[in-house]
Design a protein that fits this description.
The mean pLDDT is about 95. A ten-stranded mixed sheet has the order 1-8-2-3-7-4-6-5-9-10, with helices on both faces. A four-stranded parallel sheet has the order 11-14-12-13, with helices on one face. A hairpin with a 4-residue loop joins strand 2 and strand 3. It contains eleven helices and 14 strands. It starts with a strand and ends in a 5-residue tail after the last helix. Helix content is about 30%, strand content about 20%. Helix 1 packs across helix 6 (about 125-135) and helix 10 packs parallel to helix 11 (about 305-320). The structure holds adenosine monophosphate and magnesium ion. Magnesium ion (MG) binds near residues 142, 143 and 151.
């Protein structure tokens, strides 16, 4: 099992953070909390260290990584930052928003998967910021799960998925948001939404003064991650919309229910959330809990606003491998 050190979210121990930073500088892997989900970090400028992330996760090599920065001013070393990108950074960083920009030379091809672009984010979590600061360089980090599994929202889920594959796991308790960052592509005139996530799409659109556009097939090829099956537990996941009758194939006695409305039948287990925010925060842990009990999953389809849009995306992906 990886070494697990507990850190105070608001006041991370300086000595632990120094050690974690030095593991990264020496080419090792550190799993750490962000406000979205737990990440598996490596020195983003060290190709060999970055390759270890792909090995540990079993991640396809053509799925690029996000570089995490401690400060927006470091973005200019890695990417071409125009006025629009710089305004978006000032308004939304630190926070759950990833920007895809044109990469400068020097960003390893292992990070960008050979694309001419790079994805950047400043996370809003004191432990993540302290770690990046201690490393003194950008930290490449995808979610700290085996590829294709639900993202980890606490240290226990990281340990269950990655065991001893990271040199250190920093445990600052459960995350705030529970879904990954929103990813937008600002390389062209149009702003493209590559992935809904923790940053409200409506807020972004208000800020940009126009709707985000969806990538066409060609730009989808440019964001390979969107092709992969994601976030899936090992048991069938079925979607249920409040007010509808349950699908015939569901046996409630052998299923668990997750959502905010009263469940439509007597399920073996019920995980009820008080709001869409808490549903988002708990959805991946809920998947893992019900899966561990060997139960099929019925997940309520949330309203398509605010965090509900990102939640829909993750539930849709989890349910995509369940045949009717
Ligand atoms: P993950 O680290 O698993 O949360 O995934 C990061 C997401 O960002 C993936 O869906 C990638 O496709 C996307 N991404 C990362 N870098 C780039 C890039 N250079 N261009 C387009 N998308 C990217
Ligand atoms: Mg991931």
């Amino acid at each position: 099992m990886a070494r697990i050190l507990k850190v105070d979210r608001w006041n991370p121990d300086a000595e632990i953070m120094l050690e974690a930073g030095s593991i990264l500088r020496n080419g090792g892997l550190v799993a750490f909390p962000t406000e979205t989900v737990y990440g598996l970090g490596a020195d983003g400028l060290n190709p060999e260290a970055v390759r270890k992330i792909f090995l540990a996760k079993g991640r396809p090599a053509d799925n690029p990584l996000i570089l995490h920065l401690a400060d927006a001013k470091n973005a200019e070393d890695l990417a071409e930052v125009d006025a629009r990108a710089s305004e978006v950074m000032a308004a939304f960083w630190p926070g759950p928003l990833t920007l895809v920009l044109r990469a400068r030379p020097g960003v390893p091809a292992e990070v960008t998967a050979g694309l001419p672009t790079v994805a950047l984010r400043v996370p809003d979590h004191p432990v993540a910021l302290a770690l990046i600061g201690a490393a003194g360089r950008p930290v490449a980090a995808p979610s700290a799960n085996r590829s294709g599994r639900p993202s980890p929202t606490d240290a226990e889920a990281v340990a269950a998925d990655l065991g001893n594959k990271s040199d250190l796991l920093l445990d600052a308790g459960p995350v705030d948001i529970g879904l990954e960052s929103t990813v937008i592509d600002l390389t062209g005139r149009k702003a493209l939404l590559l992935r809904p996530g923790g940053t409200d799409i409506e807020k972004l659109e208000t800020f940009l003064g126009k709707p985000l556009e969806l990538p066409d097939d060609d730009s989808k090829k440019r964001s390979p991650g969107t092709r992969y099956k994601h976030y899936s537990p090992a048991v069938p996941v079925r979607v249920w919309t409040a007010g509808e009758t349950l699908h015939d194939s569901v046996n409630p006695a052998k299923s668990g229910f997750m959502g905010i409305s009263p469940p439509p039948a007597k399920f073996a287990r019920v995980i009820l959330f008080e709001s869409e925010e808490s549903y988002a925060r708990g959805v991946f842990a809920g998947f893992r809990q019900l899966e561990a009990k060997g139960l099929s999953i019925v997940a309520e389809w949330p309203e398509p606003r605010g965090i509900g849009l990102a939640l829909r995306d993750r539930i849709r992906r989890a349910a995509a491998c369940t045949t009717p």
